[in-house]
Amino acid sequence: MNNVKTVKKHLKVILFDSQKILTEEKIFQHNKDLIDVTIMYTTNKLDCEEPYDYLLYLVEDCTYFHDENLAYFKKELQGKKKIIIVTKTKVREEFVSLLALPVYGMISYEFLLQNENNVIELLRNERLLVDPAIQKKLAFEIDRKKQSKTPLKSFVLNREKVAHILKVNEQNVLQLLLDGKSTKQIATELHFSPSTISTIICKLLKNLGVNDRTEAVVYAIRNEWAVGER
Question: Does position 59 have pLDDT exceeding 80, yes or no?
Answer without folding.
Answer: yes
